[in-house]
Amino acid sequence: MERFYKPQSSSSGPKLIDLNKLPWDPADRIRIMDYHPDQRDVIRIQYLVNGPCQPRGHDFPKKYIGNKERRFNRTWFDKYGNWLEYSVKEDNAFCLCCYLFANHVGNQGGRDAFVEKGFNSWNKTERFALHIGDINSVHNKSLKKCEDLQNQNQSIETALHKQDDIVKRANRVRLNATINACRFCLKNSLSFRGHDESKTSICKGNFLELMDLILRHDQELPQLPKVAEEEVLKSIFKKIGDDVFALLVDESSDVSKKEQMAIVLRYVDPHGIVKERFVGVVHVKETSSLALKSAIDTFFAKYGLSTKRLRGQGYDGANNMRGEFNGLKAKILEENSSAYYIHCFAHQLQLVVVTVARKHLGVVNFFDNISILMNVVCSSCKRSTILREEEKEKVEKEIGSGILDTGTGLNQELSFIRPGDTRWNSHYKTLTRLVDMFPSIIKVLEYVKDECNNTSSQNQAISMLNFLSSFESVFYLHLMLKILGYTDSLSQALQRKDQDILEAVKLVETAKGKLQKFRESGFERLLKNIHLFCGKHDIEILKMDANYVNERAKRQRFNITTQHHYKFDCFNTVVDMEIQEFGDRFSEINTELLKNMTAYIPYDSFSKFDEAKLMRLCEFYPYDFDNGEKIALEHQLDLYIDNVRKDERFANLKGIGDLARVMVETRKHISFPLVYRLLKLTLVLPVATATVERCFSAMKIVKTNLRNRIGEDFLNACVICTVEKEALESVTNEVVIDRFQKMKSRRGQL
Questions:
Q1: 549 in helix, strand or coil?
Q2: pLDDT tens-digit profile of 482-504?
Q3: Is 128 helix (H, G, I), strand (E, B) or coil?
Q4: Cα three-residue angle 685-688-693, rounded to 5 degrees
Q5: Of 69, 618, 707, 741, which sits with the fewest C-beta atoms within 10 Å of its C-beta?
Q6: Residue 476: which of 487, 486, 464, 484 has the closest Cα?
Q7: CA 743 vs CA 16, 50, 152: distances in Å
């Protein structure tokens, strides 16, 4: 019988296709008829949901047709928006509707050009109308089929499953409740599923506990986070439009040891306000510059973004990121010379502090002892309890004696915070707590010395008591507390999402100026505070005019006084190293690009305005200003400066961020469009990658050890909705329901 009957091979069935990874560029797609018949409608619906490939921000290349330069005009997207597509890869135009439904392609009406080969005769604009044709043309029939496919009320499956208004209303109520439950879980980074979701389970998980519904009643409910993510991204990309933006990228591994790359876009919204929006986390197999660049190109292609609209890059200092020849920075600059790179200011600030902490021997010993102190005091629950009890008694005594005031939020319980290895602003909190809790910490050490049975712990406690009772340790404690206080304030300011590059430069210069002033006249005040602290806690105060004696080598004699050692060998040396590192690390401050941007600063009635600098600034952006616009910009700048100086609404602006916002509010961005365009180029330059770091913090909450099997797409959807809560709030349930309905053919109508 096998001669006459051959069993059907399992390979004849449809192959699994990831609808989220369908080719976006028309040149990369295969023919719709090459898909399995059972999959064609699903693929067509997905393409219609995604919409035509319209990279509005792309810098369309010019080519000679005849004796004139011609190129694709982005206004054609507005005129033929429901079907016209553009291939970045081949510089050709295509028709989405005809690709989906025109099965037999001929030459009538230019269908062959718009479907298979692509149309690129940009001088023959009449071909668009010719392609559309009359009411019975292939294009219009294909367009009608697209509309019918999206209109599920006309489908046979829906007709066979008739529903009255009561059932539809009930479906809508259930879906609204489901969406609200999803919102709650996404905003609070909660898991959807429970360990035991059976009917007899006491705790079925967050989603099922929120909903009076069992997940198996509708197997498509897990698609809702993906729908919400797509609508959030849609709202973000709509605000960017075809405007310029900057790219912030960093990579980190998750709990499953998968390397994830977070992508953040910085842009100026239609209200003139700087925004940094998280748009996705992408799994990369390696962190080489080529792999990161490939992942970014794929992401840009998927959402219609173009590297030609990039006007800034912000990364950390890793070689794969900022390498001059093979780094990600260099790869992007090869394609777009106007995508200027800014090394994350917050990361550079950390390197300033780390360098001093690793180079000066006294500071190195001080922080090494702080690490040992943390291990001794906080190594057990019992010692932590003693510390809290001692601190509680101290606060009660000070309240009773009138030293401390009482009230809501005052005198909260403190803990001795362990500093992080990579976040040096956490050391500032540790030193602050050490000063505040000093007597309580001493008592814990005395307890360990007297009561502990472990000889090693007793020796460490004795060593730490000697360390804390020495004048040298108190000196370095107050010195580093002062320096870290300056850098902590600067770090907090640099991490603001709306921080602009000029304000960041000003903050860095201010911090450097404070350190310089502290070096010149701060020693005597620092010494006074040290003496007060020593007197309060019964620590021996050294005589400053006596010969200096090294506590670790008392036999060694020095021909200098104690004051000379602490002022010149310790104080001046540490502060000078800090000031020098500020100058070496923040090299961007002295670049011509940033110097020219300072002409926009609105302080003191625009006293720093310099037309020559702004004209030089526009030379850095050849893709944004042609020769005619440069001439027009010069005239606009003359009118602009006279206008804003006379306008009281521009009198008390705090920075260029406020300047852009007020220009939009007063509609001067319409009166001086070229001036506003140059201002936006200044605003999009990134300052720090703090937003990217926040995304990784959210990812660690979403994907935990208990949720380490979460899929890549679902992880991306959850993290986006968790981080971009503001954008999620702007997406209404009606929009989610509409997109959910269009994702595939459904019997149940909403």
A1: strand
A2: 999 998 888 888 888 888 888 88
A3: helix
A4: 130
A5: 69
A6: 484
A7: 17, 10, 11
